[in-house]
Amino acid sequence: MRLRKARSTGSIFAVALAAATLALVGAPTLSAAKKAVKVVAPQISKVETSGTKVTVSGRVTLPENTPSERRRTRVQLTLSNGGSAIERRTVKISAKRAFKASWSTKLSGSLTLTVRVTIKGKDAGKAVKRTLVITTSPGTNPNPSQQLIGTFDLQPGTAPVGDAPTGSYFQMLLPGGAVFGNLDSPAANKNYTTLTPGTDGGLSTVAYQPPPTPAFSGGTSGSALASAIVKPVSFEGVNFGIVTASTDPQLGEHDPLPSISAQGDTLTGQVTAWSAQWNGSSFNQGTPKPNGSVPSPTTTLTGTYDPATHAFTLEWESLIVGGSFNGFSGRWHLAGTFVPAS
């Protein structure tokens, strides 16, 4: 009996000792287990459609369910028709990690809904997709406007003497509308400064195309070095370049990302962020201006579009305020092929 009791006591002691040792050398604590959770995924609980209205709700699993983590979390919802038409919405999550978005879509037919989570602006986890169908109701517009998200690849410009210009080009206009010729233009007709696509191929509606650092060959003066949208081209002996940025390089105000929509064969939208840089200066050449105004002779953006081939033209005029060309204006003509974002 004494031997059995000793053995029993010894077994209990061994078990306790093993448990204590395991705890000391790294047994998973509750805190460690919470930190080990790396799953970040949206959970769609409901997708509802009523006519053109789409409502999506769900929840998000986070690595750490803390107030700071929730504040940095966004849910991105993308609706696509499988072609060039895309709509995007971004929403926050609640204290219970829930999200909800509701909007009237301009798309129709069989659509793909993609829901993704971002934390601090970076994609986190896998995207979740659903398919839904929007049917155009009788009496509604059978040809709704569709936002074009991608790159407007530019066709190089030509301007022969005696013939109409083609492709992409720029004209400087004096106050009153007379053309200010550019003797350094690569075109034969010096009334036009022809443009050549840059490293990005043209104008993006997916992301800004800001100036490099430094922006000019002389640091604060000289030729512009921006080359993403168009290749720098000489004007009055100094190269100018084109940029788009969230903060206007001339005015210091917020510029929205360029947004262009197609309705049938017509294009509309805004290119507020379009800025020309030359000899250390920046000139807002967008429309409307960052404050939303369209000061004469600035015009709204107009254009044409072929839904089958994606061929486009875009035109606008924009007043120059300040600097060496104060009171002048720029007339812009872009042509080429729209390439949808993948």
Structural descriptors:
342 residues; mainly beta; Immunoglobulin-like; 11-stranded antiparallel beta sheet; 4-stranded antiparallel beta sheet; 3 helices; disordered N terminus
What secondary-structure arrangement, pairings included, does this model have?
Blueprint: H1 2-24, H2 30-36, E1 41-50, E2 53-61, H3 67-71, E3 73-80, E4 86-92, E5 98-104, E6 109-119, E7 122-134, E8 146-148, E9 150-154, E10 169-173, E11 179-180, E12 193-194, E13 202-204, E14 233-235, E15 238-243, E16 259-263, E17 266-270, E18 275-278, E19 281-284, E20 302-305, E21 311-319, E22 329-340
Antiparallel strand pairs: 1-2, 2-5, 3-4, 3-6, 6-7, 8-16, 9-13, 9-22, 10-11, 10-12, 10-22, 14-15, 15-18, 16-17, 17-20, 18-19, 20-21, 21-22
